[in-house]
Write a structure and sequence with these properties.
Helices cover about 50% and strands about 5% of the residues. With about 200 residues, it is mainly alpha-helical. Strand 2 (about 130) and strand 3 (about 135) form a beta hairpin. Helix 3 (about 80-85) crosses helix 7, helix 6 packs across helix 7 and helix 7 (about 150-160) crosses helix 8. The chain binds heme C (HEC).
């Protein structure tokens, strides 16, 4: 009896085993060839891309070329500003009109310390002034409200180097500094310029 029970149980176990799914086996369903090929291609591409990038600047895949930002005012045409804003009085050749508008050519007011012409063009000038032996007593308008600081620097750099003039260009920092220190000073008089700056 005992032995019978044993067999009976065995059979039961056997049937139970049959009802279960088979143990999962590896390699039963091989990975499709296309997938293998794709993985291969991706690997080659990945490693190849990495190798290709070695030594190149890290741009995060951004292959646009780097353009250096031009210095402020570098693209401003001082000559064009002169023609539009100054030449009506000081004339195209910078010689002015004797007795009315002083010359810019060889003017010590223009070609000396940069603080002086910056003050004149930014704030204007009014009062008796002598330029190259001729006396003027007119009104030079202020351009601080009409031109950007970079434009003032550009037009001054232009007139300081045109018609044989040979003075250093004027950086926009000069105009910024003038604005900071003298705010909205009205038109200067020649005397005041001489007292405040190294004017003639
Ligand atoms: C409306 C006419 C007029 C315009 C426009 C004008 N100026 Fe003048 N400028 C004068 C007069 C007049 C004087 C002399 C003022 C005085 O007698 O005190 C003068 C004086 C000057 C001086 C100092 C004296 C000299 O001859 O060096 C400079 C520098 C100067 N101007 C530069 C400029 C520049 C740069 C511009 C253009 C951004 C300009 N001016 C536009 C009339 C003008």
């Amino acid at each position: 009896m005992k032995r019978h029970d044993q067999r009976h149980n065995d059979r039961h176990n056997y049937n139970a085993q049959h009802r279960e799914h088979g143990e999962p086996e590896e390699g039963q369903r091989p990975v499709p060839k296309v997938v293998v090929v794709w993985i291969g291609i991706l690997l080659v591409w990945g490693v190849g891309y990495y190798a290709w990038q070695i030594g190149k600047p890290m741009l995060g895949g951004d292959s646009r070329s780097v353009v250096e930002a031009p210095a402020a005012g570098a693209d401003i045409d001082g000559g064009a500003i002169f023609s539009a804003r100054c030449s009506a009085c000081h004339q195209d050749n910078g010689q002015g009109v004797p007795g009315s508008f002083p010359p810019l050519v060889e003017s010590e007011w223009l070609l000396g310390d940069p603080t002086v012409p910056v003050a004149i063009v930014h704030d204007g000038l009014q009062g008796e002034i002598e330029v190259e032996g001729t006396t003027y007593n007119g009104v030079m308008p202020a351009f601080g409200g009409q031109l950007e600081n970079a434009e003032i620097a550009a037009v001054l750099s232009y007139v300081r180097q045109e018609w044989g003039n040979d003075a250093e260009p004027i950086e926009v920092d000069r105009v910024d500094a003038h604005e900071e220190e003298h705010g909205d000073h009205g038109a200067w008089s020649p005397d005041e310029l001489s007292e405040t700056f190294e004017a003639p």
